[in-house]
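Readers of this paper often ask what the protein records in our data store actually look like. Below, we set out a record of this kind in full and without editing:
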Amino acid sequence: MSKVEPKGEDCVDARPKNDQDSHLADNGGDQADAKTPPDSYQYNMKFPSLGQCVIINNKNFHKSTGMSVRNGTDVDASNVMQVFSNLGFKINFANDQTVSQMRHLLTKVSEVDHSHSAMFVCVLLSHGEDGKIYGTDKSIDLKELTGLFRGDRCSTLVGKPKLFIIQACRGSDLDSGIECDSVSDSEGTQRIPVEADFLYAYSTAPGYYSWRNCSNGSWFISSLCEMLKTYARQLEIMQIMTRVNHKVALDFQSSSNLPGFSGMKQIPCIVSMLTKELYLPK
């Protein structure tokens, strides 16, 4: 009979902060391999309500910010409102919010009882920097706003998908592109990470500008709305987002009067901490 090697205890690749964290080191403890039933790989959508979709549309900014008017954002806001309303979400819409107002609105929503909702969506349309989003008066860390919905702060959304869709710049880099040839409920109580079940859909990659047409709206939001209209009842959310990436990457190229700003490209960035497949109900 072959010898079975003991499995080591999980540990982190970091120095312990204090003596209380010493249990994170390698202690050679045993652990069991749990098997996940196949029927637990999809989020449960069988709730009385699909959930809220909060839309914050910031167009006009205080002079002190140095930010320009975001012409075309109203087209984005209208498209998002129509698409998510048609999908069955309850729309919570706000225009031109200061940082304080954004924080207050999302705090109130996070404190609502979401027990009868299947999920939550938040759409932020504004200027931004990497890791930050602008209110009409100044910027705020995105993590402060999204953190309101973490598992340890919003208990009625624990284990449910939370989607944050962010149309904003993440820096000032330009992408000139490159030529190519082709282009279960029966499981009982469980402990899950507080950061689990989030999906962040950024309009652009870290460090880059995000493009918006002054008449037709942003490349990302227009593509997202088109893909949701076409595939929301058919495909899993990551399949839909991949098609959004494909459309933005291949179908758009900037046209600008500013030297060096024409012919630029863009690729959205989808960051998923979802733990199951997300299919919107038919």
Remarks:
- The two ends are 53 Å apart (CA to CA).
- Residues 22-26, 182-186 have pLDDT under 50 and may be disordered.
- The chain is about 20% helix and 20% strand.
- The helical segments are 73-87, 99-111, 142-146, 219-231, 237-251.
